[in-house]
Specification:
The protein is of the alpha+beta class. The protein has one domain. Helices cover about 25% and strands about 15% of the residues. It has 4 helices and 4 strands, in the order αβααββαβ. It has a two-stranded antiparallel sheet. It has a two-stranded antiparallel ribbon with strand order 2-3. The termini are far apart. The protein binds iron/sulfur cluster (2 copies).
Length: about 100
């Protein structure tokens, strides 16, 4: 039987790719960055590839769909959409000194 879920995930991952845009490292636009609490994050807690709502909603596609999810602060604009959408409130926006 055809595994449609896997195909669906393949399509999503193919459209969600992080790329360097015209404005360069847009991470410098905001010092507030999303910090993931791995005690609350669903895939981090379960060790299973589930949820990834933050990855799906990030308009900059800077969240990697791995366990735990990894955020590229070089291109994260600090919009906090991931924090708003996280179903278990595992993300908080904190001030981060960028390199
Ligand atoms: S949305 Fe929240 S719980 Fe889901 S993967 Fe992202 S940080 Fe983890
Ligand atoms: S704060 Fe905005 S740009 Fe940064 S990871 Fe979250 S959704 Fe993406």
């Amino acid at each position: 039987m055809k595994d449609s879920k896997k195909d669906y995930q393949k399509i999503l991952s193919s459209v969600q790719k992080s790329v360097i845009g015209e404005a360069g490292k847009t991470g410098s636009w905001s010092k507030l960055k999303p910090i993931i609490n791995v005690e609350k994050c669903i895939p981090a807690r379960s060790g299973k590839p589930s949820c990834f709502t933050c990855w799906l909603y990030c308009p900059e596609a800077v969240i990697e769909r791995i366990i735990p999810p990894k955020i590229d602060f070089n291109y994260c604009k600090g919009c906090a959409i991931c924090m708003e959408e996280c179903p278990v409130k595992a993300i908080t926006m904190e001030e981060v000194e960028l390199e």
